[in-house]
Amino acid sequence: MEPPVRQTHARRDDDGAIRATDSDAALARLSAVSKHYLSDPFIKSFVSRPHLQQPRPPLINIGTYVRSEGLDALVDQWLELAQADGTQAQVVSLGAGSDTRFWRIATGPRRDALRAYVELDFAENTIKKAMAIRKSKELSAVLGPPENVTLAGGGTTLHSPIYHLLPADLRLPPSEVLTPLLSTPTPGSSEPLLSPSHPTLLLFECVLVYMAPAASSRLVQWFTGYFESGVLGGLIYEMYGLEDNFGNVMKDNLRARGISLPGVEPFTTFASVQSRFAQYGFVTSHALSLREIRRSYISPAERERISQLEMLDEIEELELVLEHYAISWGVQLPQNKDTLKARWDTWGLVPYGPAKGV
Ligand SMILES: C[S@@+](CC[C@H](N)C(=O)[O-])C[C@H]1O[C@@H](n2cnc3c(N)ncnc32)[C@H](O)[C@@H]1O
């Protein structure tokens, strides 16, 4: 049984400020693309007047680049492992905002690896995203023939053969919110939207920080229960260790915008981030700070290319910022399935050898 969650929680005044963090993420990505750190032909369709947006400072662009490279590599590897297992994977992106990952995968070399790609966010954000998708020929074309794409829920919900955009407040009891959306058959089908037997990756990119730890645990628990006899991966990107001066300044700035970060509180140290998925009961549990990913997990050729893009005076400042963000990941596997374990245990970032200075 899940402990009761007050319904009033869903309509707190600061929800608008939390939803608006999506624009920050989209603008940061647009900036990194415009400065050639990343390539993403789809992000401009999710930003209003993209050509008028000011680029972000180099430090932010590098952070966006490192975050994106780390997450992309792990998602790609998940899809590759599923293919090597002779099956297709599912991805569930929670608090997806304006993320373009589905379009990048669906137009890339792993397009055949996806069985389903599900995005969840507040209804106010999914309605905006559904509108942006309908408005853009480029985005719509990737979803499949128009007759196979349907809008529902007053425009807050979009279904296509593989991609599904769904409204949900992730803090509410999962049995009320997720069960009807993900585990009951979709209209016109006898299958649930999410198959419990396909390897499924949960992606939490900068979202759990806005939720109380108890609500995050409950959310993850719903998925671990649903995928009890299947393969489930978890991937989290967010801040940690915000007890120092840097963290206090960040929290003050966000507080001034009406945003608090209850989800970051248990994660005061890197070790606490590393054991996060173990705490959720997963069999593997790993983490790397963005600082470490930049130092040792980006190829030397890429590091060289990135260093040429913009002048960056303060490497120490960059490292301080990157040290406060981490990517953590883990896998839950059914018991006594050694062959599955041998394959899925290998999921993780691979270093390029020892760090050679910065
Ligand atoms: C910082 S943005 C990140 C967007 C996207 N994941 C990315 O990294 O580009 C945080 C997103 O999480 C969503 N979010 C935060 N709390 C949520 C909740 N309780 N239920 C649903 N979505 C939530 C926000 O609406 C927003 O779109």
TrEMBL record:
List the catalysed reactions: [phosphatase 2A protein]-C-terminal L-leucine + S-adenosyl-L-methionine = [phosphatase 2A protein]-C-terminal L-leucine methyl ester + S-adenosyl-L-homocysteine
Q: In terms of domain of life, where is this protein from?
A: Eukaryota
Cite the entry's keywords alphabetically.
Methyltransferase, S-adenosyl-L-methionine, Transferase
Q: Tell me if Nucleotide-binding is a UniProt keyword of this record.
A: no
Q: Which GO terms describe its biological process?
A: methylation
UniProt xrefs under Pfam families: LCM (PF04072)
Q: Does the entry feature the keyword Transferase, yes or no?
A: yes
Question: What terms describe the molecular function in GO for this protein?
Answer: protein C-terminal leucine carboxyl O-methyltransferase activity
Positions of S-adenosyl-L-methionine binding: 67, 95, 169-170, 205
The EC code for this enzyme is 2.1.1.233
Function in brief:
Methylates the carboxyl group of the C-terminal leucine residue of protein phosphatase 2A catalytic subunits to form alpha-leucine ester residues.
State the family it belongs to.
Belongs to the methyltransferase superfamily. LCMT family.
What's the name of the protein?
Answer: Leucine carboxyl methyltransferase 1
